[in-house]
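Can't paste images in this forum, so I'm doing it all in text. The chain is below; anyone willing to post the predicted structure tokens underneath?
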Amino acid sequence: MTSRSKPAAAKKNPSPGMYKRVKDRDTALNFKLHKYRSGLEIALSAQMLKVKIPFEYESLRLGFLQPSIDRSYTPDFILDNGIIIEAKGQLDSDDRKKMILVRKTFPNLDIRFVFSYANGKIYKGSKTTYASWSAKNGYLCATKSIPIAWLKEDKKPFNFK
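Text version of the structure:
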């Protein structure tokens, strides 16, 4: 068998060819010092240096909040005793994220999963099963049918807070 060499990692600095466009030595040193991210940034820097306009490059970092996205969750079944049953054949990454957010938003809701196969892996090659993911994230789960004990549990208040 022949071994394959790994492709070279992408360079974070601009390519050496970007420096060749610059004629004077001070401007070239400025480009290397600041490690611009694109050819356009190099060109704009060169323009400002040429006309002797003072500037700073990436000297400010502004934090911001991404606007929230209104989403909804529709439970599959709500038992008379207040238990919410979510039936899942597979629990993909988006569903897992959604259910974690639902748990954080409504910590008092009693949501439980019934999986086609609770011991199935959450994705190919994973060591994590649906059952272990459920336990880790505060959910009870079962395989293929709702346990009789869940059906016979005492009624709980349906609390949306």
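DSSP finds six helices and four strands in the chain. The domain at 77-152 is CATH 3.40.91.30 (Restriction Endonuclease).
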